[in-house]
Amino acid sequence: MPPRKRPNVITPNVKAPVPTPIGTTAAPSSSAAPTTAPAPAANALPFGAKSVSEMSTPQKGAYFLSKLTRFSLLGFALWQFWPKLTGSEPWWQAVEMAAPSAGFGRYEPVVADLAKRRRIEDAFEWSWGAYEDNAFGADEYNPLSRTGHNISSAGGVG
Question: What is the pLDDT of residue 95?
């Protein structure tokens, strides 16, 4: 089967307009150049519709789904890259919600002390490691003697 011939997009008969010097007017051309279709407007709707009301229901669904997808992608990109663009720290790392103090359903923001939080995490991990090494499986751990014991004589509670 021979290869399919592609349609000729560029027409060789169309001549480019010749620029005229400033201060002169161009004489009207006697040769009728073939006209081309105007470029679609930036806000042109798909499916050749002039308004959304002219679209069928599936076309409206596809149109609004494409708009929703674009809006969602823009929102996701801003959510991901806003801290990098502005140089600020993300809000979810800087502010935590405290217990209600001003009435039902009202919260006061508390600025997180990230350095203190990291020190607390390190202390917990260190103490868990000591419990794991010396008394794993026991109910209580005595850090000075590095031993563990159970609350009941029947074995561990937990």
Answer: 57
